[in-house]
Amino acid sequence: MALTIIRRSMLAAGLALLASAASAQDYPTRPITLMVGLAAGGITDTTARLYAEAVSRNLGQRVIIENKTGAGGGVAAAAVQNAAPDGYTLLVFSGSQHATVPAVSNAAYEPVKGFSPITYLFNSVVVLVVPANSQAKTLAELHDIGRKKPGGLTVGTPGLGSPSHLLGAKILLSAKVPAETVHYRGGAPMMADLVTGRVDFAWPTLSTGRAFIADGRLRALALDAEKRWAPMPDVPTLDELGFGKEKVASWFALAGPAGMPPALVSKIRDAFIQASKDTELQRRLGENGTPIASSTPEEMGRAMAAEWETMQALVKTLNIRQQ
Prior knowledge:
It contains eleven helices and ten strands. It has helices spanning 2-26, 43-59, 74-81, 95-104, 139-148, 163-175, 187-195, 206-214, 262-275, 279-287, 297-318, and strands spanning 32-36, 63-67, 89-94, 115-123, 126-131, 153-157, 179-183, 201-202, 218-224, 251-257. It starts with a helix and ends in a 5-residue tail after the last helix.
């Protein structure tokens, strides 16, 4: 009797594997949705659209971007976590933001257990900018202004827990500069307020900020990068300014709901890796200062778990609370 049960279990497992392989082989038979938790126009959105175009060509199926904003990306993350694990609803997200939102609030998703990691997509480089009429010409001058200004500086972020938010918070804490943080639903609405002076400064990605810097509406004071960026050779890096230790994780990645079959995860990963070799995508990401990245699902899963542990500790250190 026991032997019969074991054989039946083995048969069921074998059939499940065959079904999984067959499902992956046929995929995709309908459009794929990439969920983006921030507003259109920001780095997550614009890069997701570039990948969507290339992946669509490779797979012969439409790849749709859905901007599902709210809760610093938490609404989109919850929607993907609760979707069917069939590969048709995927999430493009910031590693640090994905971990920070549930660390500061009762988020409706599990940042690690709720997802099937697939691959990294890119890294972001951010730049400290102030409005053109700001009196600050350097990071040190901006900090001096903040220490003297009643109530301190106002800093805009593209969302709670974004790399820009955490980097700015760590630097302000290290420099002992008081500030009020204003969170937006993406980079585009943040920039609209920044250029009009409603906030004193922000850390947008190069992709979001470079046009504003080029036309003189914003002034760049510092760059979070390994070296100076060629189009802005006079802008120093954080390492040069003594804030190298304040850097935060800057990777963005792709994931699906927990429980996706390994064969399906592998096929989707291969499609995005192939897309990253597209010459137009490489050119656009290079211009935007967002270097392409990739990983195995296992590597990305370990990074997600490590980021979750890191963000829980960092949130306590910075005393960050959901606004």
